[in-house]
Amino acid sequence: xxxxxxxxxxxxxxxxxxxxxxxxxxxxxxxxxxxxxxxxxxxxxxxxxxxxxxxxxxxxxxxxxxxxxxxxxxxxxxxxxxxxxxxxxxxxxxxxxxxxxxxxxxxxxxxxxxxxxxxxxxxxxxxxxxxxxxxxxxxxxxxxxxxxxxxxxxxxxxxxxxxxxxxxxxxxxxxxxxxxxxxxxxxxxxxxxxxxxxxxxxxxxxxxxxxxxxxxxxxxxxxxxxxxxxxxxxxxxxxxxxxxxxxxxxxxxxxxxxxxxxxxx
Length: 265
Description:
alpha/beta; Rossmann fold; globular; disordered C terminus
């Protein structure tokens, strides 16, 4: 289902962060990229309703303000960049919490089965009976991801989901996210720093800078050498592989003097 954002504005106190943001997200993986502090996390928080912004967020042809709170919670799943998972529950129990809106007083076999299936898809089924307090940061992150996607929301929002994950886990995770998005026709929006992950897995890339969306389209049309130089201040070589997916190799910073000055004080 399509998500449309029209003239979205938000600020902290008197400081504007989002400045008339307009974008459309279709049922696919959309990656939001851009330097630090350009509003990526704030945008996700506004979409899910944690922050109250001016403007319109339209889901399935209807403004989110017109939906009941329980309808929004059911339709939209949000994974923050930092999530608290310190609990004495087991990994299996924590994963089932993702289905809390549909759980009854007694746990059904299908709920247990769905939770185990999700852990298997993420490659962490061996952790099912481990206490959350025993897990590493990366393992806790994988459990938080399992919670976010187990109920198959219509809109999945993820803020830097690869935090604390090694390279293998990053690729495995995005394989799962891409497959679940396609299987369930979800609109998945992921804020990412890693341009190569965005290029490889996103069908649509949205570039933010200065609180605005400055480009949107296919990875090849957005992730270019000129863009990386202008927005990130980095010289990079960008080539297309056999499938037309950009491959980014950073060369050096264009702001060496500024970095040196900052380091030397």
